[in-house]
Amino acid sequence: MRNSRGPLLALVLAVVVAVAVVGGLVLAGKPKPRPGCTVTASDGESYGLTVEQARNSATIAAVGRRLGMPDHAVTVALATAMQESGLRNLPGGDRDSAGLFQQRPSQGWGTYEQVTDPLYAAAAFYERLRDQPGWAELTVTQAAQLVQRSALPEAYARWEPEARAAAVALTGGNEGGLTCENLTVDAPGTDIVPVANAELGTAVLSGPHETAEGWAFATWLVANATRFGLDGVTFDGVTWTADSGAWTGSGPRDGVLSLHRAGTG
User: Fold this and answer.
1) I need a labelling partner for 255 at 20 to 30 A (CA). Which of 18, 54, 80, 99 fits?
2) pLDDT at residue 187 in the model
3) What percentage of the chain reaches a pLDDT higher than 70?
């Protein structure tokens, strides 16, 4: 009787190899998760942002906090930028509008170079908002309209929940309220000191902080992680890493802020 085990074994091996090859191709062709950030409200509702949107949100919130503006003002500013530009620093728009807030040089907002500088644009928005009588008692969309004079005055209202969640997280009112995931962090990154001085009003970030200030600084750092080459941020015994994309307990609740640059061991 002829031995049939040889051909059968060869067939089995061929099938195994084919499955392995196909599996490898599937894995190789699987798209890499896109980098992004998430703002989580105190009620658990979450909102997705691109890295660019998170960074611009962090700038808007930081400038508001530096200028002593309340959370409501930061919410108004964020809702305005969400509606006007999608939180992107646009090079143009309707007529001569440009930047995060689509401010118009012809209407006294500043030069083109100024309105396309997120730091300047945010400060200019807050200054005009602060000049409006009774703005603090108005709804988000009413306050935004006082500044923007939009042809669609009710359009800002749709962004209020997301803007409020981002404002609370980025001003330190919600522990770990901002995370960024799937980041590629390269060393050495931009120097933090001049940017922190301009946006936060201080470059003294590492060390002890009261809770709200510490979380405001920590979330600002996470939103800017790719900019500064940061792969880890810790505050009050809770650590975010670029690898995990999440905040996890890592030590005692000591109120200390620290950061870790990629490639520094």
Assistant:
1) 54
2) 80
3) 89
Low-confidence spans in the chain with pLDDT less than 70? 1-30
Domains, the chain, ordered by start: 35-171 (1.10.530), 184-265 (no CATH)
Q: Tell me how long the chain is.
A: 265
Residues 6+ apart with CB under 8 A from 172: 211, 212, 213, 214, 215, 216, 217, 219
Report strand pairing: 230-235 vs 207-208.
Answer: unpaired
Per-residue pLDDT reduced to its tens digit, 33-52 = 899 999 999 999 999 999 99
pLDDT given for residue 153 in this prediction:
81
The DSSP call for residue 107 is G
Tokens of 67: 């200028």
Give the pLDDT of residue 264.
Answer: 87
Alpha-carbon dihedral 79, 84, 88, 90, rounded to 10 degrees: -160
Place of tokens 């300047």: 120
Half-sphere exposure at residue 203, Cβ-oriented, CA atoms within 13 angstroms: 8
What does the alpha-carbon distance between residue 101 and residue 59 come to, in Å, rounded to a whole number?
Answer: 13
Residues in a beta bridge with 179? 38
Residue among 170, 168, 171, 200 nearest 41 (CA)? 168
What integer pLDDT is reported at residue 32 of this predicted model?
Answer: 76
Burial of 98 per CB tally in 10 Å (0-12, 13-18, 19+): buried
